[in-house]
Design goal:
The chain is α/β, with parallel strands linked by helices and 304 residues long. Strands 1, 2, 3, 4, 5, 6, 8, 10 and 11 form a 9-stranded mixed sheet that branches. Strands 7-9 form a two-stranded antiparallel ribbon. It has 2 domains: 183 residues, Spore Coat Polysaccharide Biosynthesis Protein SpsA, Chain A; 70 residues.
Length: 304
């Protein structure tokens, strides 16, 4: 039996999945499965061309459900969740680096170094602590962008932690976890549909179960990022992101904190919508307005 199962979830990933799978082709002691969420491009053809196991869904089940499918379809004691736009570097050495901390049964997950297309580490994304209400409020209001070195953002994005260390939330784009930890945590929560915050929630459940999570910079992958969601319209992306954020907040925070986050959603989304509402064609402004109204409804449906 293979020691590591590699689960890759695709959605219109024809341009990315080939290089991703090619980087895994000569690694021993792994089993790879691709879960495709009803792509309408040549993703399935690219996977089949390489002889990798493919589970093709007839509809988009969402990222979390597809991850759970992949884990159920494999049997290895460790699972590497890898995005199709991530290309593993150093092959077996990176796999071994992720596995080493998992030899301690108190550790349930490890995440590796992600390198962007510019050749720089994706600092602030590849390793984070779990978000607090203050974190999300500052993020929603754009304060973390205007003042990235504020104490809340500094802690959230692990900006002061060099090298290998214990963190709370490595990026789901390059995340290895033990099957035992996954089962204890109850897998990925499929209420986070179709995407976003399901990996944050999974790491939160691991922490609540008493497990540790580690960042391992010796494991490296090149990661372009956002290939699937980038093809969605801005309005749909906003609906998914804000919806999943509010789902996470409602699950983990007290009602008063959720209410504050809802107000921040309405205010922050308004700031982001303002340029589009003040310029462009009438059709464009109408589209922006409808998108903003959809976000406001999400917030009001929670607590406002």
């Amino acid at each position: 039996m293979a020691r590591v199962a590699i689960v890759i979830v695709t959605y219109n990933s024809a341009c990315e999945i080939g290089p991703c799978l090619d980087a895994l082709a000569h690694i021993e002691d792994i089993q790879t499965v691709v879960i495709d969420n009803a792509s309408y491009d040549d993703t399935s053809a690219e996977v089949n061309r390489r002889g990798v196991r493919l589970i093709a869904n007839s509809d988009n089940k969402g990222f979390a459900a597809a991850v759970n499918q992949g884990v159920r379809a494999t049997s290895a004691p460790y699972v590497l969740l890898l995005n199709p736009d991530a290309r593993l570097q150093r092959g077996s050495a990176s796999i071994a680096a992720l596995l080493k901390p998992l030899e301690d049964p108190r550790t349930a997950a490890t995440g590796g170094m992600l390198i962007g297309s510019d050749g720089k580490p994706q600092i602030g994304f590849m390793a984070r602590n779990l978000p607090t209400p203050a974190t999300l409020i500052l993020e929603l209001l754009g304060i973390n962008r205007l003042w990235p070195r504020n104490p809340v953002n500094w802690h959230y994005r692990c900006l002061g932690k060099p090298g290998a260390c214990e963190v709370e939330q490595p990026a789901g784009a390059f995340l290895m976890f033990s099957r035992s930890g996954y089962l204890t945590a109850g897998g990925f929560d499929e209420r986070f549909y179709p995407v976003w915050f399901e990996d944050v929630d999974f790491c939160a459940k691991l922490k609540a179960s008493g497990y540790r999570v580690c960042f391992v910079p010796d494991a490296v992958a090149i990661h372009s990022g956002g290939h699937s969601v980038g093809r969605l319209s801005v309005e749909i992306r906003q609906r998914y992101w804000y919806g999943s954020l509010l789902e996470y907040a409602s699950k983990y925070y007290r009602p008063i904190s959720v209410r504050a986050i809802c107000f921040a959603v309405v205010l922050g989304a308004g700031f982001r919508a303002l340029p589009g509402l003040m310029s462009g064609s009438w059709g464009g402004r109408k589209k922006v307005f409808k998108g903003y109204c959809a976000v406001v409804r999400l917030a009001f449906n929670r607590y406002l």
